[in-house]
């Protein structure tokens, strides 16, 4: 049994076993600025939840939004809600209470679902790019290729792709000994700041983590890039200006979402360590964990005429149900 308990750590011989972590978050900022950030992030959080729930409801209720594109958009909104629920509530807590702690199990759970939702979103964005590729480059066979069964299989595969990376990464990290400091220099339990607290050789894990990052971030990105090269090639060969405009309009929202998500993710996880300070990593992490999930429903609703029309119909039915 442990020889003694001292505060929040247990000692075993010469080893100190960390039982909980302290999230440093934005504690270097003044309390006034942290209060402003709390209000800002709380507003963004509520807008994110309402926007994504609205996308789910509209694409489910409106009969004109039952195509594969909106089926995948609905899945993306579910992912964004999950991503936000994992990260933002705890981050808001760190802005209210200095030295907010998270238990060892809580940290592992947060990291697991962060990996899960992140990997699933990368694969789902690649699936959505494939859907646009088939719709524009092979429109005659689109109903056959992207039937209900194929869409369900692609969506399921995207969701389940998060399990292996989340299970392997999280289990491996939390099997290491944590025997020293317990301050995680981040606003959530991301792998780099947590692995920095490990008191063992982590070189093999870091090689595996790089491999997983390439497979679940870079590979889907290359598939998306390849899809859009073919899409743009097809669009530019279209004889009709109206046809080009419609084709661009169906892709622009997804392309903008992909650009926002991948630009910050690649900058975060592929930058050299020498140029990747903890503070800059926090700012980049805010982009894809807080800002992008809020922008996705706004982008899809404002840049998509079908979604805007469906929103108007839903609002009219809600305000005047007698016209149903």
From TrEMBL:
Location of the G-protein coupled receptors family 1 profile domain: 51-300
Family in the record: Belongs to the G-protein coupled receptor 1 family.
Membrane topology of this protein: Multi-pass membrane protein
Keywords, sorted A to Z: Cell membrane, G-protein coupled receptor, Membrane, Olfaction, Receptor, Sensory transduction, Transducer, Transmembrane, Transmembrane helix
Subcellular location per the Swiss-Prot or TrEMBL entry: Cell membrane
Organism (species): Equus przewalskii (Przewalski's horse)
Chief place where the protein resides: membrane
Entry function: Putative odorant or sperm cell receptor.
SUPFAM superfamilies: Family A G protein-coupled receptor-like (SSF81321)
Regions that span the bilayer: 12-29, 35-60, 81-105, 111-130, 151-174, 210-232, 253-271, 283-302
Protein name (database record): Olfactory receptor
Phylogenetic lineage: Eukaryota, Metazoa, Chordata, Craniata, Vertebrata
CDD domains: 7tmA_OR10A-like (cd15225)
The keyword Transmembrane belongs to this UniProt entry's keyword annotation: yes
Gene3D superfamilies the record matches: Rhodopsin 7-helix transmembrane proteins
